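Many introductory courses stop at the sequence. We go one step further.
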Amino acid sequence: MLLQWWSAATSALESLSRAQVAGVTFVSLAVLVLEVWAIVRAVTRGHGVQGTLAWLFSILAFPMIGALAFFALASPSVRRITLKRRRATAQLRRGIADEAGAAGARPSAAAHDGDSLLDLAASLTELQPTAGNVAELLTDNELTFERIEAALRSAQKVIWAEYYIIRNDETGRRFLELLAERARAGVEVRLLYDALGSIGIDAHLLEGIVAAGGKARAFQPMNPLKRRFAVHLRNHRKLIVVDGEVGFTGGMNVGDEYSGRRRRSGVRSFRDSHLELRGPSVGSMAQVFREDWAFSGGGALPRLHTPVAAASPGSLVAIVPSGPDQEHNASAFVHFAAIASARKRVWLSSGYFIPDESTMSALVSAALRRVDVRVLLPALSNSDVKLAALAARWYYGKLLRGGVRIFEYEPSMLHGKTLVADGQIAVVGSANVDLRSYRLNFEVGALVNDAKFASVLERRFVGDVARAVEVTLEMLARQGRWRRTRCTIARLLSPLL
């Protein structure tokens, strides 16, 4: 009997061992298939050599974890998403063409005749630049939100708003409550917020907007079961259109760090740049919102009638939306062309700075042509994304050796995204000079051709530089080996940021 028990126990252990081996073999095979599939997708998705190599390194260096991170973060479904976006945009623009044809309207004469940069923007976005606009630069945090809130309160017909971040703090709740209040007053309120950037948004206040008759939608909901789920493709735009008459865009999200309310509690607010527009350019901003709303499943919104001109002669303005749905990224191309065509000076600021090779070449070649090239960035101590700030510093040496001047803003986190060239051309928007803005994010900005407006932005830049520290090659040489190593590692990871 004892021998029978022993034989049965031995047989059971052997069966269990075989099952464990089979289980391990199955798991190993599954991991291998996952990694091979991730490598194939990384190579074939066409997102540049740097990004591809970074992901291949991650997949091979961190078995299973690297592959899972790729599918969660690298947007392998970008092609399906961009095709959907292009179809939504094409459908809306066909509707505009049909309306114009039925009315017997002809395309308006180009107000930007002879300006190659505005021509470029029009070709990239299919939105025509307009004349007769009033453009006002907003840089004071509290004043900016006072202007936005005043415009919202005065709305009589429509409020269309979209933001990357709407915080669940005093500023965010105040903003949502104001939208609900205007919806109760009979104003057509449409709110589009990014599902990831606004992940903490107050759901109760969103319900209040809907209950009041408005509508709110999330851009790219965080649902991995959806076929077009992608963590990386975010709506980084900041845009408000009120009654088709006034619009706001720029770098400021909705939160205490942007409105200046943090300053009251002793915490430094972000240093940012925003723009208020009046005139026909607001119509282009409204068109951007219509396309985003349709893409997010909200349906087709009617076109807004906008004033022919708010001022004479006013500012020439091109609204520049950009995103992964474009064959040529409009933000990247406009930045490159503005830098490459500068003759006297080109000054830019960016909250995050991870330039591609084209932008690096444009900056250095402009400096070598004796153009005054200056780049204003946040100091590492103030950056809210330390890894991105470290990656930016990897590029300093090449830029400085090429003659580019670099300044680090000290008082607070510099978040503004601006460019001003030759005292005539200015760009204010949501796009940073980095790989994310140039490849993954949906962005929007305004290209303003107006010497008066450019001079205002130049004065702002000079004032910020006065409170910044200029970086030199000698300073870089004094950096320790560990600091240089951290910058190198951050730069290698920059395509993943």
